[in-house]
Protein backbone atom coordinates (compact mmCIF):
# COMPACT_ATOMS: atom_id res chain seq x y z
CA UNK A 1 0.00 0.00 0.00
CA UNK A 2 1.47 3.35 -0.98
CA UNK A 3 1.01 5.98 1.69
CA UNK A 4 2.32 9.39 2.46
CA UNK A 5 4.58 8.96 5.48
CA UNK A 6 5.95 11.42 7.97
CA UNK A 7 9.24 10.89 9.79
CA UNK A 8 9.22 7.59 11.69
CA UNK A 9 10.26 7.33 15.32
CA UNK A 10 13.80 8.62 14.87
CA UNK A 11 14.96 8.02 18.42
CA UNK A 12 14.37 4.27 18.16
CA UNK A 13 15.60 4.01 14.58
CA UNK A 14 18.82 5.92 15.14
CA UNK A 15 19.26 4.05 18.41
CA UNK A 16 19.28 0.75 16.52
CA UNK A 17 21.73 2.19 13.99
CA UNK A 18 24.14 3.61 16.58
CA UNK A 19 23.96 0.47 18.73
CA UNK A 20 24.72 -1.72 15.72
CA UNK A 21 27.76 0.28 14.71
CA UNK A 22 28.99 0.52 18.31
CA UNK A 23 28.74 -3.22 18.88
CA UNK A 24 30.44 -3.93 15.55
CA UNK A 25 33.35 -1.71 16.55
CA UNK A 26 33.63 -2.95 20.12
CA UNK A 27 32.86 -6.66 19.65
CA UNK A 28 35.86 -8.66 20.90
CA UNK A 29 37.15 -11.87 19.40
CA UNK A 30 35.15 -14.90 20.49
CA UNK A 31 36.52 -18.41 20.76
CA UNK A 32 34.44 -21.29 19.44
CA UNK A 33 35.54 -24.27 21.56
CA UNK A 34 33.92 -26.78 19.22
CA UNK A 35 35.81 -25.57 16.17
CA UNK A 36 38.83 -24.34 18.10
CA UNK A 37 39.03 -21.13 16.12
CA UNK A 38 38.30 -17.48 16.62
CA UNK A 39 35.01 -15.87 15.75
CA UNK A 40 35.13 -12.21 14.70
CA UNK A 41 32.67 -9.58 13.61
CA UNK A 42 32.17 -9.51 9.86
CA UNK A 43 31.10 -6.44 7.89
CA UNK A 44 29.89 -6.64 4.30
CA UNK A 45 29.07 -3.65 2.11
CA UNK A 46 26.86 -4.09 -0.94
CA UNK A 47 24.46 -2.13 -3.09
CA UNK A 48 22.81 -1.69 -6.46
CA UNK A 49 21.88 0.91 -9.05
CA UNK A 50 18.73 0.45 -11.13
CA UNK A 51 18.38 2.61 -14.25
CA UNK A 52 15.87 2.36 -17.04
CA UNK A 53 13.38 3.88 -19.43
CA UNK A 54 9.58 4.12 -19.56
CA UNK A 55 7.34 4.71 -22.57
CA UNK A 56 3.55 4.83 -22.17
CA UNK A 57 0.44 6.37 -23.67
CA UNK A 58 -1.86 9.04 -22.22
CA UNK A 59 -3.76 6.52 -20.08
CA UNK A 60 -1.07 6.82 -17.41
CA UNK A 61 -1.07 10.59 -16.76
CA UNK A 62 -3.54 13.36 -15.98
CA UNK A 63 -2.76 15.31 -19.14
CA UNK A 64 -3.68 12.36 -21.33
CA UNK A 65 -0.42 12.63 -23.26
CA UNK A 66 2.08 9.93 -24.15
CA UNK A 67 5.35 10.05 -22.26
CA UNK A 68 8.95 8.83 -22.63
CA UNK A 69 11.28 9.09 -19.65
CA UNK A 70 14.71 7.92 -18.55
CA UNK A 71 14.61 6.90 -14.89
CA UNK A 72 16.88 6.35 -11.92
CA UNK A 73 14.69 3.68 -10.37
CA UNK A 74 16.88 3.23 -7.31
CA UNK A 75 20.33 3.53 -5.82
CA UNK A 76 21.00 1.56 -2.64
CA UNK A 77 23.92 1.11 -0.28
CA UNK A 78 23.79 -1.46 2.51
CA UNK A 79 25.98 -2.59 5.38
CA UNK A 80 25.53 -6.10 6.82
CA UNK A 81 27.16 -6.72 10.19
CA UNK A 82 27.56 -10.20 11.67
CA UNK A 83 28.79 -9.58 15.21
CA UNK A 84 28.93 -13.30 15.95
CA UNK A 85 26.71 -16.34 15.40
CA UNK A 86 23.95 -14.84 17.61
CA UNK A 87 23.77 -11.18 16.57
CA UNK A 88 23.32 -9.52 13.21
CA UNK A 89 22.47 -6.02 11.99
CA UNK A 90 21.70 -4.39 8.67
CA UNK A 91 21.72 -0.72 7.68
CA UNK A 92 20.48 0.40 4.26
CA UNK A 93 20.08 3.81 2.67
CA UNK A 94 18.55 4.42 -0.73
CA UNK A 95 17.36 7.04 -3.19
CA UNK A 96 14.31 6.26 -5.36
CA UNK A 97 12.51 8.05 -8.15
CA UNK A 98 8.86 8.85 -7.46
CA UNK A 99 7.23 10.49 -10.49
CA UNK A 100 9.40 13.61 -11.12
CA UNK A 101 10.99 13.68 -7.65
CA UNK A 102 13.69 11.71 -5.86
CA UNK A 103 13.22 10.48 -2.31
CA UNK A 104 16.04 9.58 0.07
CA UNK A 105 15.08 7.18 2.83
CA UNK A 106 16.16 4.18 4.85
CA UNK A 107 15.86 0.64 3.60
CA UNK A 108 16.16 -2.07 6.26
CA UNK A 109 17.66 -0.83 9.53
CA UNK A 110 17.51 -3.52 12.21
CA UNK A 111 19.21 -5.48 14.95
CA UNK A 112 18.55 -9.24 14.99
CA UNK A 113 19.10 -11.93 17.61
CA UNK A 114 19.55 -15.54 16.45
CA UNK A 115 20.67 -17.24 19.65
CA UNK A 116 17.56 -19.40 20.02
CA UNK A 117 17.21 -22.53 17.89
CA UNK A 118 15.37 -21.87 14.58
CA UNK A 119 14.32 -18.45 15.91
CA UNK A 120 15.04 -14.86 14.84
CA UNK A 121 14.01 -11.82 16.89
CA UNK A 122 14.26 -8.52 15.03
CA UNK A 123 13.87 -4.87 16.08
CA UNK A 124 14.03 -1.91 13.73
CA UNK A 125 12.70 -0.54 10.45
CA UNK A 126 11.74 -3.71 8.59
CA UNK A 127 9.25 -5.20 6.15
CA UNK A 128 6.09 -6.51 7.70
CA UNK A 129 5.65 -10.26 7.04
CA UNK A 130 2.96 -9.88 4.39
CA UNK A 131 3.07 -10.76 0.70
CA UNK A 132 5.35 -13.19 -1.10
CA UNK A 133 6.33 -10.64 -3.75
CA UNK A 134 6.63 -7.76 -1.27
CA UNK A 135 9.11 -9.76 0.80
CA UNK A 136 11.16 -10.37 -2.33
CA UNK A 137 13.73 -7.62 -2.97
CA UNK A 138 13.09 -5.56 -6.10
CA UNK A 139 16.28 -6.87 -7.75
CA UNK A 140 15.07 -10.44 -7.12
CA UNK A 141 11.53 -9.93 -8.49
CA UNK A 142 11.14 -11.76 -11.80
CA UNK A 143 9.51 -8.81 -13.57
CA UNK A 144 10.39 -5.18 -14.24
CA UNK A 145 8.33 -4.08 -11.21
CA UNK A 146 6.18 -5.67 -8.53
CA UNK A 147 2.55 -6.33 -9.42
CA UNK A 148 -0.15 -3.69 -8.97
CA UNK A 149 -1.90 -5.82 -6.34
CA UNK A 150 1.28 -6.19 -4.28
CA UNK A 151 1.89 -2.42 -4.34
CA UNK A 152 -1.74 -1.70 -3.52
CA UNK A 153 -2.26 -4.08 -0.61
CA UNK A 154 1.05 -5.19 0.97
CA UNK A 155 2.18 -2.88 3.81
CA UNK A 156 5.96 -2.74 3.20
CA UNK A 157 8.50 -1.40 5.74
CA UNK A 158 7.59 0.06 9.11
CA UNK A 159 9.11 0.47 12.54
CA UNK A 160 8.49 -2.66 14.56
CA UNK A 161 9.40 -5.83 16.38
CA UNK A 162 9.10 -9.31 14.87
CA UNK A 163 9.55 -12.93 15.97
CA UNK A 164 10.08 -15.67 13.41
CA UNK A 165 10.41 -19.44 13.72
CA UNK A 166 11.76 -21.40 10.77
CA UNK A 167 11.88 -25.13 10.10
CA UNK A 168 12.84 -26.96 6.93
CA UNK A 169 9.26 -27.40 5.73
CA UNK A 170 7.47 -24.40 7.28
CA UNK A 171 8.01 -20.87 8.61
CA UNK A 172 6.12 -18.45 10.84
CA UNK A 173 6.63 -14.75 11.55
CA UNK A 174 4.58 -12.36 13.66
CA UNK A 175 5.15 -8.81 14.78
CA UNK A 176 3.91 -5.47 16.02
CA UNK A 177 4.50 -2.41 13.82
CA UNK A 178 3.90 1.34 13.80
CA UNK A 179 3.26 3.50 10.76
CA UNK A 180 2.30 7.15 10.32
CA UNK A 181 -0.25 8.54 7.85
CA UNK A 182 -0.46 12.34 7.77
CA UNK A 183 1.01 12.58 11.30
CA UNK A 184 -1.49 10.03 12.66
CA UNK A 185 0.00 6.93 14.26
CA UNK A 186 -1.17 3.59 12.88
CA UNK A 187 -0.58 0.38 14.86
CA UNK A 188 -0.53 -3.02 13.17
CA UNK A 189 -0.36 -6.69 14.14
CA UNK A 190 0.89 -8.71 11.19
CA UNK A 191 1.66 -12.42 10.80
CA UNK A 192 2.56 -14.94 8.10
CA UNK A 193 2.69 -18.75 7.88
CA UNK A 194 4.25 -20.73 5.02
CA UNK A 195 4.84 -24.36 4.20
CA UNK A 196 6.59 -26.14 1.35
CA UNK A 197 5.69 -29.49 -0.20
CA UNK A 198 8.71 -31.14 -1.82
CA UNK A 199 7.88 -33.55 -4.65
CA UNK A 200 11.38 -34.23 -6.00
CA UNK A 201 14.85 -32.71 -6.10
CA UNK A 202 13.67 -30.17 -8.71
CA UNK A 203 9.95 -29.82 -7.96
CA UNK A 204 8.13 -28.26 -5.00
CA UNK A 205 5.11 -26.16 -4.05
CA UNK A 206 4.94 -23.25 -1.61
CA UNK A 207 1.78 -22.25 0.27
CA UNK A 208 1.42 -19.18 2.44
CA UNK A 209 -1.15 -17.15 4.32
CA UNK A 210 -0.69 -13.72 5.90
CA UNK A 211 -2.95 -11.37 7.82
CA UNK A 212 -2.68 -7.88 9.24
CA UNK A 213 -4.97 -6.00 11.61
CA UNK A 214 -4.40 -2.24 11.39
CA UNK A 215 -5.75 0.43 13.76
CA UNK A 216 -6.04 3.38 11.37
CA UNK A 217 -7.02 5.78 14.18
CA UNK A 218 -9.26 7.95 11.96
CA UNK A 219 -6.58 8.54 9.32
CA UNK A 220 -7.30 9.08 5.64
CA UNK A 221 -7.49 5.74 3.83
CA UNK A 222 -6.73 5.33 0.14
CA UNK A 223 -5.23 2.59 -2.05
CA UNK A 224 -3.39 3.74 -5.17
CA UNK A 225 -0.73 2.63 -7.65
CA UNK A 226 1.07 3.88 -10.76
CA UNK A 227 0.55 0.71 -12.78
CA UNK A 228 4.16 -0.44 -13.06
CA UNK A 229 5.73 2.90 -14.05
CA UNK A 230 7.49 5.15 -11.50
CA UNK A 231 6.97 8.28 -13.64
CA UNK A 232 3.21 7.74 -14.16
CA UNK A 233 0.37 9.20 -12.12
CA UNK A 234 -1.57 7.05 -9.64
CA UNK A 235 -4.13 5.93 -12.20
CA UNK A 236 -5.37 3.03 -10.07
CA UNK A 237 -7.03 4.23 -6.88
CA UNK A 238 -9.80 3.59 -4.39
CA UNK A 239 -12.09 5.97 -2.55
CA UNK A 240 -10.37 8.43 -0.18
CA UNK A 241 -12.11 8.23 3.18
CA UNK A 242 -11.42 8.62 6.91
CA UNK A 243 -11.26 5.14 8.45
CA UNK A 244 -11.01 3.49 11.88
CA UNK A 245 -9.48 0.10 11.11
CA UNK A 246 -8.50 -2.28 8.37
CA UNK A 247 -7.97 -6.04 8.01
CA UNK A 248 -5.76 -7.55 5.32
CA UNK A 249 -5.66 -11.16 4.15
CA UNK A 250 -3.16 -12.57 1.67
CA UNK A 251 -2.87 -16.05 0.14
CA UNK A 252 0.30 -17.24 -1.62
CA UNK A 253 1.10 -20.14 -3.94
CA UNK A 254 4.24 -21.04 -5.87
CA UNK A 255 5.09 -24.04 -8.03
CA UNK A 256 8.58 -24.76 -9.32
CA UNK A 257 9.73 -27.62 -11.51
CA UNK A 258 13.24 -27.28 -12.93
CA UNK A 259 13.33 -24.03 -14.95
CA UNK A 260 9.57 -23.40 -14.78
CA UNK A 261 8.06 -21.29 -11.97
CA UNK A 262 4.45 -20.19 -11.39
CA UNK A 263 3.61 -17.70 -8.63
CA UNK A 264 0.19 -16.43 -7.59
CA UNK A 265 -1.21 -14.28 -4.77
CA UNK A 266 -4.71 -13.18 -3.77
CA UNK A 267 -5.49 -10.20 -1.51
CA UNK A 268 -8.58 -9.05 0.35
CA UNK A 269 -8.88 -5.88 2.42
CA UNK A 270 -11.81 -4.86 4.60
CA UNK A 271 -11.98 -1.28 5.87
CA UNK A 272 -14.24 0.16 8.57
CA UNK A 273 -14.97 3.82 7.91
CA UNK A 274 -15.78 6.32 10.67
CA UNK A 275 -19.49 6.10 9.87
CA UNK A 276 -19.41 2.39 10.77
CA UNK A 277 -19.78 1.14 7.21
CA UNK A 278 -17.44 -1.58 5.90
CA UNK A 279 -15.77 -1.47 2.52
CA UNK A 280 -14.09 -4.34 0.67
CA UNK A 281 -11.23 -4.25 -1.86
CA UNK A 282 -9.72 -7.21 -3.74
CA UNK A 283 -6.88 -8.09 -6.05
CA UNK A 284 -4.39 -10.68 -7.18
CA UNK A 285 -1.98 -11.83 -9.84
CA UNK A 286 -0.58 -14.96 -11.46
CA UNK A 287 2.84 -15.09 -13.09
CA UNK A 288 4.83 -17.76 -14.88
CA UNK A 289 8.50 -17.67 -15.84
CA UNK A 290 10.88 -20.01 -17.65
CA UNK A 291 14.67 -20.05 -17.94
CA UNK A 292 16.26 -21.03 -21.26
CA UNK A 293 19.18 -22.78 -19.55
CA UNK A 294 19.58 -24.73 -16.30
CA UNK A 295 19.09 -21.65 -14.10
CA UNK A 296 16.45 -22.05 -11.39
CA UNK A 297 14.88 -19.75 -8.85
CA UNK A 298 16.37 -20.10 -5.37
CA UNK A 299 13.99 -20.48 -2.45
CA UNK A 300 14.69 -20.50 1.29
CA UNK A 301 12.62 -19.97 4.44
CA UNK A 302 9.45 -19.04 2.54
CA UNK A 303 11.13 -16.40 0.35
CA UNK A 304 12.85 -16.08 -3.02
CA UNK A 305 16.60 -15.48 -3.08
CA UNK A 306 18.81 -13.94 -5.75
CA UNK A 307 19.31 -15.85 -9.00
CA UNK A 308 22.60 -17.67 -9.59
CA UNK A 309 22.78 -17.92 -13.40
CA UNK A 310 23.94 -21.22 -14.86
CA UNK A 311 25.58 -19.41 -17.81
CA UNK A 312 27.48 -16.20 -18.42
CA UNK A 313 24.28 -14.91 -20.02
CA UNK A 314 20.96 -16.44 -18.92
CA UNK A 315 17.54 -15.68 -20.42
CA UNK A 316 14.21 -15.81 -18.62
CA UNK A 317 10.78 -15.25 -20.18
CA UNK A 318 7.74 -14.37 -18.08
CA UNK A 319 4.05 -13.56 -18.34
CA UNK A 320 1.83 -11.97 -15.69
CA UNK A 321 -1.85 -11.15 -15.31
CA UNK A 322 -2.99 -8.77 -12.54
CA UNK A 323 -6.48 -7.85 -11.42
CA UNK A 324 -7.54 -5.32 -8.79
CA UNK A 325 -11.01 -4.16 -7.73
CA UNK A 326 -10.72 -0.85 -5.85
CA UNK A 327 -14.36 0.29 -6.26
CA UNK A 328 -16.48 1.37 -3.31
CA UNK A 329 -19.36 3.87 -2.98
CA UNK A 330 -19.28 4.46 -6.75
CA UNK A 331 -15.66 5.62 -6.45
CA UNK A 332 -12.40 3.96 -7.47
CA UNK A 333 -11.80 1.64 -10.38
CA UNK A 334 -11.25 -1.93 -11.53
CA UNK A 335 -8.31 -2.88 -13.73
CA UNK A 336 -6.92 -5.84 -15.65
CA UNK A 337 -3.24 -5.69 -16.57
CA UNK A 338 -1.34 -8.02 -18.89
CA UNK A 339 2.44 -8.14 -18.97
CA UNK A 340 5.01 -10.11 -20.95
CA UNK A 341 8.73 -9.70 -20.62
CA UNK A 342 12.24 -11.04 -20.87
CA UNK A 343 14.96 -10.88 -18.22
CA UNK A 344 18.64 -11.21 -19.10
CA UNK A 345 21.16 -12.11 -16.39
CA UNK A 346 24.79 -11.18 -17.03
CA UNK A 347 26.53 -13.40 -14.50
CA UNK A 348 25.79 -12.24 -10.97
CA UNK A 349 26.56 -8.54 -11.47
CA UNK A 350 23.91 -7.18 -13.90
CA UNK A 351 20.27 -7.82 -14.90
CA UNK A 352 18.23 -6.40 -17.77
CA UNK A 353 14.42 -6.55 -17.57
CA UNK A 354 12.18 -5.58 -20.48
CA UNK A 355 8.38 -5.63 -20.16
CA UNK A 356 5.41 -4.90 -22.44
CA UNK A 357 2.33 -3.82 -20.47
CA UNK A 358 -1.32 -3.45 -21.48
CA UNK A 359 -4.14 -2.38 -19.13
CA UNK A 360 -7.92 -2.00 -19.17
CA UNK A 361 -9.82 0.07 -16.62
CA UNK A 362 -13.44 0.50 -15.54
CA UNK A 363 -14.70 3.24 -13.26
CA UNK A 364 -13.07 6.54 -12.39
CA UNK A 365 -10.01 7.56 -14.40
CA UNK A 366 -7.94 10.66 -15.13
CA UNK A 367 -7.57 10.22 -18.86
CA UNK A 368 -10.27 9.79 -21.53
CA UNK A 369 -8.36 6.68 -22.60
CA UNK A 370 -9.56 3.44 -21.00
CA UNK A 371 -6.72 1.28 -22.35
CA UNK A 372 -3.11 1.66 -21.31
CA UNK A 373 -0.05 0.54 -23.26
CA UNK A 374 3.57 0.87 -22.32
CA UNK A 375 7.12 -0.44 -22.31
CA UNK A 376 9.19 -0.69 -19.15
CA UNK A 377 12.94 -1.37 -19.19
CA UNK A 378 15.28 -1.75 -16.22
CA UNK A 379 19.02 -2.37 -16.07
CA UNK A 380 20.40 -3.30 -12.64
CA UNK A 381 24.03 -3.28 -11.60
CA UNK A 382 24.84 -5.22 -8.42
CA UNK A 383 27.92 -5.16 -6.25
Short description:
The protein has helices at residues 10-26, 148-153, and strands at 30-32, 37-39, 42-56, 67-82, 87-98, 101-113, 119-127, 157-166, 170-181, 184-198, 203-221, 224-225, 236-237, 241-257, 260-273, 278-291, 298-300, 303-305, 313-325, 333-346, 350-363, 371-382.
List the helices and strands and how they pair.
Layout: H1 10-26, E1 30-32, E2 37-39, E3 42-56, E4 67-82, E5 87-98, E6 101-113, E7 119-127, H2 148-153, E8 157-166, E9 170-181, E10 184-198, E11 203-221, E12 224-225, E13 236-237, E14 241-257, E15 260-273, E16 278-291, E17 298-300, E18 303-305, E19 313-325, E20 333-346, E21 350-363, E22 371-382
Antiparallel strand pairs: 1-2, 3-4, 3-22, 4-5, 5-6, 6-7, 7-8, 8-9, 9-10, 10-11, 11-14, 12-13, 14-15, 15-16, 16-19, 17-18, 19-20, 20-21, 21-22
| Overall pLDDT level | 88
Number of strands: 22
- Secondary structure category: mainly beta
CATH topology term: Porin
Q: What is the spatial order of strands in the main beta sheet?
A: 3-4-5-6-7-8-9-10-11-14-15-16-19-20-21-22
Largest sheet: 16 strands, antiparallel, barrel
Q: How many DSSP helices?
A: 2
Fold and architecture overview:
- The protein is mainly beta and 383 residues long.
- The chain has a single domain (10-30, 40-382), classed as Porin (Beta Barrel), CATH 2.40.160.10.
- 6% of the residues lie in helices and 61% in strands.
- Strands 3-4-5-6-7-8-9-10-11-14-15-16-19-20-21-22 form a 16-stranded antiparallel β-barrel.
- The longest helix has 17 residues, at 10-26.
